[in-house]
Amino acid sequence: MNAELPLADDAKSTEQQIMARMRRAGRGSVWSAAQFRGIAQRNALDQALTRMLRKGLIRRICHGLYLYPQFHPMIGEAPATVSAVLTALNATEPTPLVASGVYACFLLGMIHDMPSEIVLLSVTTTRDIQLPTVRVRIRKTAPRYMAGGGRLSGVLIQAWRHMGAEQIDDAHITWLRQQIPAVSRHTLQADEALAPAWMHGRLRQLYEV
Question: Whose CA is closest to 101, among 144, 158, 172?
């Protein structure tokens, strides 16, 4: 017989602690293996996650990323959402990932459909993650391009870089003022110096009353 040997107490504890964190976050949450570093040594964590995969408790999205699966009576197991994946990736980055290109425009409501490819900027890593409906591409870049990470200014700067100065006209600014609440637009004043010089005047049009 190939029955599994009983787990040692410390192995059980590692598994139980990982499972407890996932349950607190809820089904559909996504986790980076690095988020569990405080529980046990790397080897013990890898073994615990492998056992949990074999038991069907979790799913591997890609190397180092795991889904605590969510089930629906009609459609069965739901795939990982983009937002859950990005939350897990940001949890282990030294600075927030910065949305770039078309994805930054999508976050601001400039386009309505989620792009099939999401590009995020990082100071540490380059990797590609294929999800069922979208490809997430993380690209390492210079720190100066990470300005405003995790804030409205970071998304706006990258969206405007993608569009180009000639596309940022008065009509576009008026539209943004209607879309973005005043309380959010006012945060741009503190971050104005982070943007390229050609954006400064347009930023003032957004945050000034």
Answer: 158
Under a CB-based contact definition with an 8 Å cutoff, are residues 150 and 122 in contact? no
Among 127, 184, 197, 128, residue whose Cα is nearest residue 155: 184
Best CA proximity match to 100, nearest among 166, 147, 63: 147
Domain that holds residue 111: 93-207
If pLDDT is split at 50, 70 and 90, which confidence band does 8 have?
A: low
A 10 A CB-CB count for 78 gives: 14
Between these two residues, 24 and 72, which has the higher pLDDT value? Answer: 24
Residue type, 75: I
Residue 142 and residue 196 share a domain: yes
User: What percent of the chain is predicted at pLDDT more than 70?
Assistant: 94
pLDDT class of 93 with cuts at 50, 70, 90: confident
Task: Choose one of 17, 46, 78: the last residue of a domain.
Answer: 78
List residues bridging with 137 in a β-sheet: 119, 128
User: Measured on CA atoms in the order 207, 176, 97, 49, is the torsion positive or negative?
Assistant: positive
Residue 70, token pair as written in the block:
């969510």
